[in-house]
Every structure is written in C-alpha cells, then in structure tokens.
Amino acid sequence: VLTQSPDFQSVTPKEKVSITCRASQNIGTTLHWYQQKPDQSPKLVIKFASQSISGGPSRFSGSGSGTDFTLTINSLEVEDVATYYCHQSSDFPYTFGQGTKLDIK
Amino acid sequence: EVQLVESGGGLVQPGGSLRLSCAASGFTFSDYWMNWVRQAPGKGLEWVANIKRDGSEKYYVESVKGRFTISRDDAKNSLYLQMNSLRVEDTGVYYCARTYGTGRSSALYLWGQGTLVTVSS
User: Fold this and answer.
1) Which of A54, A65, B45, B111 is most enclosed, with most CB atoms within 10 A?
2) Which residues pair with B81 in a beta bridge?
3) What are the helix (H) ranges across chain A?
C-alpha cells in the first residue's frame, strides 16, 4: 500500500512544494511519480525515486528509498497545478498512491 | 510518431464482455513490457495487468483475476484486454502504458489517451 500526503494542497507560484509517499513495506527505489492534469493521460515526472526524465523540467526532483519518498517541485509554476501520483513497481500487484491534488491559492 | 492508441471501449451491461485494443507505433513494440491501468470517474489510478515482452508472463490485480485476460500480438504491434463478467465497478477510463526501459520494474513512460468503459444496466 502506498499512502500519499497531503491529499490536497493550495499553492502559490514560485513556492517550493513537497509531496510524500509512504510504502507499507520496503520497495527499494522502485517508486515513480506521475503528473495528471484534468482530462489528460498521466505523465511520468520522476522514475526510480530520484531519476529525472529526459526533456522534463529541472524543477522536479525526487528523493527517498525503502519506505519513505518525496517529490519536490522547486519554484512551482502555474502549469504544475495537477494531481500527482506515486507508483511502486517492486511487487505485484503494482499500486498507486491515492493522489495529491494541487491547486492555486 | 511514438504513440499508443486505445480503442474498443463503450457501454455494456453488467455480466457482459468487451475487448480493448491498443495500437503501438514509432517504437519496437516487442522490446517492452506493456500494461493496462484504469481510472474510475473522479478517482485515482489503478494498475490492472501487465504482460512480458514475449507474452510468457502475465500479472493481474486481484479484482480482475479470472475475468480479464491480457494478450499481445507483436506482429501487429498491438496489446489487448479481454474483459468478461464485467461489473459496475469496472467502469472507468482504461489506459495502455509502455515501460520506460525494457525491464519489468520500469516506470510507465508512454501512455495512450485512454478509452472509456461504462458498465451499466
């Protein structure tokens, strides 16, 4: 089971935002982060806990291993307002966190 | 262009069947594990199933075991999901997704636009 916090956060542009994901068991670094905007497909933003995606914005970073993980957005931009999901691919069944929705304050 | 395009969704009665398809283009389909992920209306993402590069391994979420079957045809660059004994709770948008790398534990990098399945009487 993956548990994200918070479920919802009001944010302002240029703010530093952190979202956490806690796994119920040790999953190493097989933890990935996705961004989903309304009526769009999910988009991978961080893979294997801390690896950035080629061509993706550098303001997204990830950290953690084992059971505790963090997605950080440095200097948030309006276009980053979305719902973010963590996902583990360590064991079957793969699971997603419940999502963290960001909106503009 | 590298893309995935799903089709086959629609309205079906409880207990009915549907077959979803996902057409891949722009990459070597046979190199990658492929996945189905669904999203109920207004809800989060749920991984449904995946299949190994050569089709020799298939995995499912518990709630669909025995009812859904994932398959692939590498000659047609296509992924399928046969859904039988459909339930109201299977309603949602179904996405096919390709892994980032060729390993099993890779992240889901390439996603289709999704196809809507509605199970209702």
Assistant:
1) B45
2) B20, B70
3) none
